[in-house]
Design goal:
The protein has 374 residues and is an alpha/beta fold. Helices cover 43% and strands 18% of the residues. It has helices at residues 43-56, 68-77, 93-101, 117-130, 145-151, 156-172, 187-200, 215-231, 246-259, 282-292, 311-315, 347-373, and strands spanning 17-19, 22-24, 31-35, 60-64, 85-88, 106-108, 133-139, 178-183, 206-207, 237-239, 267-271, 300-305, 320-323, 329-334, 337-343. The longest helix is centred in the last third of the chain and has 27 residues, at 347-373.
């Protein structure tokens, strides 16, 4: 049996819904989401934050609409950005109606929490009128009181029961354009809840480990939890929840997808941790290159290895490689083959130029292939 670089992941079958023009579920690409942390009434600040997330590769952005002024501010936001907006309306049904009318592509709402059946009907009517889907968002930190009394504590069964309860309300009104999340800050609880939910329904699933923490701990927790689910084929859209800037959530989300071979975007850097053998400052070089190459969207692999022990071998599997050498000169590889040497003082600028040129080459080839197919 020949080696394959990525194990084939068999996606769980789910229905498809749309968030604006972005498909979610039924085999559509797993999308990366984030949420703004600006006041939504700060229209300029919110737009600027969404645009930074767009540069990082975000597919869908959620904004908070806790009051009427925020919900109405969406009118001035949605037309200035290039990604669909999900309105998080908390518990007030009127915010959902206002957000739908203001151009939201999706409403984050738990129908069982907004009151009477008539209110639910009004929200569904607004969603239909304006082409909105919905997300049912169950969270271990805000489970219904009767479920906490029934189960004694947040557990997978309680999360799933809550999710299906809210889903049933929408389905009773013949509304099916929704996805579900069952998040928890405990990795094991969240993963178990998603696994159980995946087995009993075909609703698209929005996966995430909520309140995961700061950049380092939150990334680790999300990688363990979301990585486990994605590898098992569970998840149609995802958010990495970090106490950090929204664009950082997007970058980590993409890194998870790239690591699992699910989606590819931008430069994937393979680098050594550095040691006494290094021919240049690997840590600083990688940090600089990641920042300088963040604007590239074309999938490219780049190896940065400090010495010749593993450098040539890693370069065999990357588009462009750099291996540290002696006398201040280092070897550049292209498509796995030695190409030329470069002085250490010039290497960062040189690698940026090489990667940018490769990105343009690959982009042109893809466009030519697309034209030929048409």
């Amino acid at each position: 049996m020949s080696y394959r670089p990525y194990q084939e992941i068999i996606r769980r079958k789910s229905r498809r819904v749309y968030v604006g023009s972005v498909p979610v579920g039924d085999g559509a690409p797993i999308t990366v989401q984030t949420m703004t942390n600006t006041l939504t009434t700060d229209v300029a600040g919110t737009i600027a934050q969404i645009r930074r997330a767009e540069l990082a590769g975000v597919d869908i952005v959620r904004v908070s609409c806790p009051d009427q002024e925020s919900a109405l501010a969406l009118k001035d936001i949605v037309h200035e950005v290039n990604v669909p907006i999900v309105a998080d309306i908390h518990f007030h049904y009127k915010r959902a109606i206002e957000a739908a009318g203001s151009g939201a592509a999706c409403l984050r709402i738990n129908p069982g929490n907004i009151g009477s059946s008539e209110r639910v009907k009004e929200v569904i009517r607004a969603a239909r009128d304006h082409g909105c889907s919905m997300r049912i968002g169950v969270n271990a930190g805000s489970l219904e009181r009767h479920l906490l009394e029934k189960y004694g504590e947040p557990n997978p069964e309680a999360l799933v029961e809550s999710a299906l309860y809210h889903a049933d309300i929408l389905q009773q009104h013949d509304f099916h354009d929704f996805k579900i999340s069952v998040k928890a800050s405990d990795v094991f609880l969240a993963v178990a809840a998603y696994q159980q939910l995946a087995e009993v329904c075909d609703h698209p699933l929005h996966i995430g480990i909520t309140e995961a923490g700061g950049r380092r701990m939150g990334t680790v927790k999300s990688a363990v939890g979301l990585g486990s689910l994605l590898w098992a084929g569970i998840g149609d859209t995802m958010r990495v929840s970090l106490s950090d800037e929204p664009e950082e959530e997007v970058r980590v989300g993409w890194d998870l997808l790239k690591t699992l071979g699910i989606r590819h975007r931008g430069v994937k850097v393979i680098s050594c941790p550095s040691c006494a053998r290094q021919g240049f400052n690997v840590i600083e070089t990688v940090r600089t290159l990641e920042d300088r190459l963040a604007h590239i969207e074309t999938p490219i692999t780049l190896s940065i290895i400090g010495c010749v022990v593993n450098g040539p071998g890693e370069a065999l599997m990357t588009d462009i490689g750099l291996t540290g050498g002696g006398n201040g000169r280092h070897m550049i590889y292209r498509a796995g083959k030695t190409d030329h040497t470069i002085a250490g003082t010039d290497m960062v600028e040189h690698i940026v130029e090489l990667v940018e040129a490769k990105a343009e080459e690959l982009k042109a080839a893809k466009e030519a292939e697309k034209l030929a197919a048409e």
